Amino acid sequence: MLNEKHRHFANILQNHAQEIGKVVDFDPQEEQLFPFDFTAANKNLAVKTVADTAAFSAWVETVLRQNHCKFGIGGYFENRTLYARSPHFNTSDEPRRLHLGVDIWGEAGTPVYAPFSGKIHSFQDNDHFGDYGATIILEHCFYGLNFFALYGHLNRKSLENLFPGKTIQQNEKIAEFGIPDENGSWPPHLHYQLMFDLEGKTGDYPGVCKLSEEEKYRQNIPDPNLILRF
């Protein structure tokens, strides 16, 4: 059951939808998104393909090309078996498999924007296999609604000339999709995630949780699709 904060968040965004900017260059009138499924139900994606970053990247690129899509989309609270590829998610008591943000899959170098004005909260290169790689967290206040937005799997150039508190304008380009060598060893994509509370963290916040923690994280992480509106 979602709390009052979620309902207020959704109402504010729906009432002011025309004032929300973009996260990537996508025209829903002219373009289509491919809905990726990274659950166990997807029998077209082999475990050995996911384990090999180059093969996984080639698979994503091929699927997008064959479906004439610039971007693929998906992931909000999706139970993803693919995280078995990295020890980063294989915690001893219970593995982390539940994806907390929305992924936008596309070409390396794809521009990334801030859909609201705000400021840099923090940034960091989470340089571990399977992690975010270059990461930026923005802080926003929209009609009195305070929240944070995490951008993961960026290129390292995106972290240059940043400092906490730096002002960001709406629709300002803030980053680019990174290549596997700088995005945590993933096919190029953006992990976009919202949080009401960062719980004291800087430059990082879990993007995948244990199934047993689902309710806890649902209360803190609203649906990015309310902003993306794809």
Structure report:
The structure is a single chain. The protein is an alpha+beta fold and 230 residues long. The chain has a single domain (4-17, 35-228), classed as Glucose Permease (Domain IIA) (Distorted Sandwich), CATH 2.70.70. The protein has five helices and 13 strands. The protein has an eight-stranded mixed beta sheet with strand order 1-2-5-12-9-8-7-10. The chain has a three-stranded antiparallel beta sheet with strand order 3-4-13, with no helix packed on it. The chain has a two-stranded antiparallel ribbon with strand order 6-11. The radius of gyration is 17 Å and the shape is globular. The protein starts with a helix and ends with a helix.
Summary keywords:
Glucose Permease (Domain IIA); 5 helices; globular; alpha+beta; single chain; 13 strands; 3-stranded antiparallel β-sheet; 230 residues
Overall pLDDT: 93
The outline comes out as globular
The biggest sheet, with number of strands, parallel, antiparallel or mixed sense and barrel status, is:
8 strands, mixed
CATH level 1 name = Mainly Beta
Helix-strand topology string = HEHHEEEEEEEEEEEEHH
Structural class: alpha+beta
CATH architecture: Distorted Sandwich
Tally of separate helices: 5
Q: Tell me the total number of β-strands.
A: 13
Whole-number total of structural domains: 1
Fraction in helix? 10-25%
Unreliable stretches, pLDDT < 50, 5 or more residues? none
Rg calc? 17 Å
How are the strands of the biggest sheet laid out side by side? Answer: 1-2-5-12-9-8-7-10
